[in-house]
Amino acid sequence: MIQIPKIKRPSKAVVKKLQELGSATVSGTLYHLGITNPFILGPTQWTPGKSVAGPAVTLQFLPKREDVYSDDEYSDPEKQLHRHALYVTEPGDVVVVDAMGDLTSGVFGEMMLTFFQGRGGAGVVIDGCIRDYVHAQELEIGMWLKGVTPNFHTQTNKYPSAVNIPISCGGTLVIPGDVIVADDDGAVVVPRAMAKEVAGSHNDWEIWVRQKLANGGHLKDYYGRTAWSKKTDNEYKKWCLENNIKYVSLEDEQKKKKL
What we know:
Layout: H1 12-32, E1 44-45, E2 52-63, H2 81-87, E3 94-98, H3 110-118, E4 123-127, E5 129-130, H4 133-136, E6 142-145, E7 147-148, E8 158-163, E9 167-169, E10 172-174, E11 179-183, E12 186-190, H5 195-200, H6 204-214, H7 219-222, H8 230-242, H9 250-258
Parallel strand pairs: 2-3, 3-4, 4-6, 5-7
Antiparallel strand pairs: 1-6, 2-8, 2-11, 9-10, 11-12
């Protein structure tokens, strides 16, 4: 019997907040917290407009060598680890796959992705390919892929070797239970231990600034709170009062970041 390590997941409230922030804001926030490049380079959005966030279930592929792995597509299915990566998922999870950037064989096909969707899966981030995209694109899960192919998962030069271990996906470390935030900008990895801090670091002033810019406000007056004039800060303070939002001074924000 195959034993798959269990993962620790952040609270759903934290994950939801990270999804609302989006990959760009999360990436910038992580930079200021010391994580300089959380971006998974390679997989791109194949489900335009889709935005997801969820704990990472990881799947690792290795180069195939016949004395180690010689099974074909349907040989003893219950020993195929790419199936078990889906078996252990919970609603809201994101499956992240190190497929070595391979463009010749598909990690999952339509049936397996349909199964994953039925379990409540949020999306997949694959440094490699899927197959059956003709039908898979009709699913509701998000898909960040390097490409598509007609070939099955071990047809050419790789095989699934481990589930829920630390992996490299697009050159970025992904540890099981890290939160993946993915949208049209790409996929970003939030370390699980930092997820709550990142989710709580978003400031209401950014919402106000966006509104001011949309209404013709100038970048030099509003974008970048450390450069605000007293007049601008008073405008923001008034907006907070009118919208029942707690006003936090710039000094208090900076003190909070230093703690």
